[in-house]
C-alpha cells in the first residue's frame, strides 16, 4: 500500500511539474530588475537554448507526421495489393485516421513551440536591454588624471 501511495505521489509531482514548466515562461518577471550582469547574460543564453529546443521539437514533430503519413500510405497500398482492402471495408480509413492524428499533433506541437519561440525571443530582447541599461558592456570608469600620472612608470 505504501509503494502505491509513493508511486502516486511521484506521478502527480511529475505531471504537475511538467504543466508548470510548460506555462511558466513569461516575457518579464518582477525580479528582473534586481539581476546582476552575469544573471542577465545567463538568462539571455537560456532563452537561446529554449528557442533551439523549440525548433528541435518542431522538427521532430514534423518528422513523426511525415513518418505516419508514409506508414499510412504503405499500409493502404499493402492492403490494396493483398485484397484486404476489398474484403474489410473501412480498413484504410483507420490507417488514414492515424496519419491525420499524427499531423494534428504535429500542428499542435508547432503552435506551442511557436509560442515558446515568440516569448523567449521577446524575453531575450528584454534581457539585452537590461544588460545594456545596467552598463554591463561599458568599460570601467577611467581613473582621474592625477592618479594616472602618479602611477605611471618613470623612465629611470
List keywords for this structure.
single chain; 156 residues; mainly alpha; disordered N terminus
Descriptive overview:
The protein has 156 residues and is mostly helical. The protein is 78% helix and 0% strand. The protein has 5 helices and no strands. Helix 2 packs antiparallel against helix 4. The longest helix is centred in the middle third of the chain and has 46 residues. The radius of gyration is 28 Å and the shape is rod-shaped.
Distance between the termini: 87 Å
Which sheet architecture does the biggest sheet show? none
The string of secondary-structure elements, in order, is HHHHH
Instruction: Report the mean per-residue pLDDT as an integer.
Output: 75
Oligomer: single chain
Using only C-alpha atoms, the radius of gyration works out to: 28 Å
| Total of helices | 5
Give a count of the beta strands, DSSP E runs of length 2 or more.
0
Q: Indicate the low-confidence ranges by residue numbers.
A: 1-22, 145-152
Helix content: over 70%
**Overall shape:** rod-shaped
Strand content: under 5%
Class based on secondary structure composition and strand pairing: mainly alpha
